[in-house]
Write a structure and sequence with these properties.
alpha/beta, 5-stranded parallel β-sheet, Rossmann fold, 6-stranded mixed β-sheet, 33% helix, 11 strands
Length: 246
């Protein structure tokens, strides 16, 4: 089936040099962007019920910019002054630099990995005496907690924000040749918004093994899957499918 229209379940790229725009221009496609999920804050009042004391911890593990924002938001709402001695272990250098929004970077003990949690774990293992706080969403990678536990790291998981389905009712009568997903939450949002959804001739593309699994468990056909050895990115996988369909 030829692909002419694509809906990507993410926010529109902030740069005009996005490979999606290049793909659209190259093949004359109409590519729209629409987040299928969004984050909602866990308010301080609710967080207090978990009886987690931020100041009982000596270090914070930050796996995303969202984790950074919500950690400092909750501290502010609870009127907790984060001590200068707090150590920060960030998933990547860019996440570490994002801390400058809240702390004087050069005056804090900040460590970071290379993007994968396994890399950050190598750093964390050198600081086993620390008591870590792990800010996260209600939907998060279980492997992070499992890895920390396997290495006997003392930590507390703090759910500070939730991943929820966005309202997609305005798309009820809009059809696309392909829908592109990047998380199981996106699939859940599709089915929550459209419980009677029938795939028919609509193609579904999924990035990552957990998203692909969610597509299949929902009883849908998976037509495009990335990453693959010959298509490490979603746009490359889509392009390969388009070439084959022509």
């Amino acid at each position: 089936m030829a692909v002419k229209t694509i809906l990507v379940s993410q926010p529109s790229p902030k740069t005009e040099k996005s490979p999606y725009f290049e793909l659209a221009q190259k093949y004359g496609l109409k590519i729209d962007f629409r987040p299928f999920i969004h984050l909602e804050a866990v308010e301080a009042k609710e967080f207090r019920q978990e009886r987690i004391n931020v100041l009982d911890h000596t270090s914070v593990i930050l796996t995303s910019r969202n984790a950074v924002d919500h950690f400092f938001r909750v501290c502010s709402e609870m009127r907790v002054t984060v001590p200068d001695s707090m150590k920060y272990f960030c998933i990547s250098e860019s996440t570490a630099y994002y801390l400058q929004k809240y702390v004087v970077y050069r005056k804090r003990k900040i460590f970071f990995g290379k993007q994968r949690f396994a890399d950050l774990m190598d750093v964390i293992k050198k600081h086993k005496k620390e008591h870590f706080l792990l800010p996260c969403s209600d939907i998060h990678k279980q492997e992070i907690s499992d890895t920390l536990e396997a290495n006997k790291i003392r930590f507390t998981k703090a759910v500070l924000y939730r991943t929820v389905a966005s309202d997609l009712s305005d798309l009820a009568n809009v059809n696309y040749d392909m829908l592109v997903f990047f998380s199981p939450s996106g699939i859940n949002s599709l089915l929550k918004n459209f419980p009677d959804f029938k795939q028919n001739n609509t193609l579904i593309a999924a990035f990552g093994p957990t998203t692909a699994k969610a597509v299949k468990e929902a009883g849908l056909n998976l037509n495009v899957h990335a990453p693959q050895p010959n298509a490490p990115s979603m746009t490359m996988a889509i392009e390969q499918h388009i070439k084959k369909a022509r």
